[in-house]
Write a structure and sequence with these properties.
With 238 residues, the protein is mainly beta. It is built from one helix and twelve strands; from the N terminus they run H-E-E-E-E-E-E-E-E-E-E-E-E. A hairpin with a 5-residue loop joins strand 4 and strand 5.
């Protein structure tokens, strides 16, 4: 997506792109789950997408359903629109040496596509709405909007409509995710030691793909020793 031309992006997502379902609708929960501990686990191999341009999308109410399309509760109350919570979404890569690295959803470049951004809904409080109605997200539960505030750990939510309110329609679309064959990790390169004073460090990736840059930091003296590992997920696109 361009993320600047909403009309063109809408056509691309709704009409131009031929999406393939990773998780079928039949596999989704068919009842309310009480907690994250009760969440269903979904795992899919992405080997078939290695070397291909892969975009991940999640859509709420693609068919444009309304509460009136379903039976009411026994007292006549319309059913609400479901809220979907995602926890721990990630891509795990197993290297040939057995090492496993993890890229959480925050590295996917997810962008909301708020299809009903021109409509004023009674259950969307203006104070909680983003300035960017086309592509914006929220930090609290707002009907029909994506809350990405916990996405660093792979968690995010799209809130449905309460009983009696209009059902919403929205997409969440990633950047290209580039899955590559996993070679052996690169040989380590010394960046800094007591005799090498370095304020900055740079490295250029010359191929499109998702990389893990791992820094091992050691601090030793006669009285103290400490070490720390820091990993950065780097997504190189065209």
């Amino acid at each position: 997506m361009s993320k600047t031309d909403f009309e063109a992006d809408s056509i691309l997502v709704e009409k131009t792109t031929e999406w393939k379902a990773l998780i079928s609708r039949e596999e989704l929960p068919n009842k309310v789950l009480g907690s994250a501990a009760s969440a269903l686990n979904y795992s899919r191999s992405v080997k078939e997408f290695i070397g291909k341009k892969f975009t991940l999308a999640i859509v709420l109410n693609k068919d444009g359903k309304k509460a009136s399309d379903y039976p009411t509760y026994s007292d006549g109350t319309p059913i609400p629109q479901s809220t979907f919570n995602f926890t721990g979404m990630r891509v795990e890569t197993t290297w040939r040496n057995g090492r496993v690295t993890t890229a959480y959803a925050s590295s996917f470049g997810f962008t909301p596509l708020n299809m009903k951004n021109k409509t004023v809904f009674k259950d969307q409080d203006e104070i909680n709405m983003p300035k960017d109605r086309d592509y914006g997200s929220v930090s609290t539960g707002v009907s029909g909007m994506w809350n990405l505030s916990s996405i660093a750990n792979g968690g995010f939510t799209v809130t449905g409509a309460a009983s009696g309110f209009d059902w919403k329609y929205t997409w969440l679309v990633s950047d290209y995710l580039n899955f590559l064959e996993c070679p052996e990790p690169d040989l380590p390169v010394k960046v800094k030691d007591v005799s090498l004073d370095v304020d900055t460090y740079s490295y250029t990736y010359d191929q499109v793909g998702t990389y893990t840059a791992t820094f091992l930091m050691n601090n030793f003296s006669y009285a103290h020793e400490d070490s720390k590992v820091c990993e950065l997920i780097i997504n190189v696109t065209e």
